[in-house]
Design brief:
The chain is mainly α. The protein is built from 7 helices and no strands. The protein folds into 2 domains: 134 residues, no CATH class; 49 residues. The N terminus is likely disordered.
Length: 189
């Protein structure tokens, strides 16, 4: 078999644990932007399209999206043990840091400096989330075809306050139907 056709070797359990530990320790209040950066751009464990597809799947599963993503990537790379080790790597460091921060906040949380620091961290988190959303959107093929679905979901949930599960189910059926129709049309041509 030619060298370029060989599948890359599976990641070690240690690499999964350490990689997801880096992701978990990179953010405060949300690590999805860091997960995308590490998994797609730094380690290249996933392509941009794979990340978008897996994140879409993980958003429909119960639980935190990034933990679900760690389980899926771990399972893909190392089976059941990978599905256990990757999310452990993701949450172990942050749990330790959170416990330390709770002790510090309990002692110093009423200080104006601490309050200002928390507002700054929240603002940085919002900026990172918007940047990640932009990078994900730029990787989507046929953006203009599916943009109305994103707008409709936003309007239905954020403005009209419709039930998120029902809106997501409706959007899934409509966008899935459109994608199927387009695929059938492409195959026919």
């Amino acid at each position: 078999m030619p060298e370029e056709n060989k599948a890359p070797p599976a990641l070690s359990l240690a690499a999964l644990f350490l990689g997801f530990s880096k992701i978990g320790l990179s953010g405060f209040g949300g690590v999805l932007p860091f997960a995308r950066h590490y998994l797609v751009e730094t380690s290249r464990w996933l392509s941009a399209d794979e990340f978008n597809a897996l994140l879409g799947l993980c958003q429909f599963l119960p639980g935190p999206n990034v933990v679900n993503l760690a389980v899926v990537v771990g399972k893909r790379e190392r089976g059941l043990m990978g599905a256990i080790v990757a999310p452990l790597g993701l949450v172990t460091g942050p749990v330790i840091v959170a416990l330390l921060l709770v002790m510090l906040y309990d002692r110093y949380g009423t200080l104006p400096e601490a309050q200002g620091m928390m507002r700054g961290v929240a603002a940085a988190g919002v900026g990172l989330l918007f940047a990640m959303g932009y990078r994900m959107a730029s990787a989507v093929k046929d953006k203009l075809v599916f943009l109305p679905f994103a707008v409709l979901v936003f309007v239905a949930v954020a403005l009209w306050r419709w039930s998120l599960p029902l809106v997501m189910l409706g959007a899934l059926m409509l966008s899935g139907g459109l994608a199927y129709w387009r695929l059938q049309r492409q195959e026919a041509s």
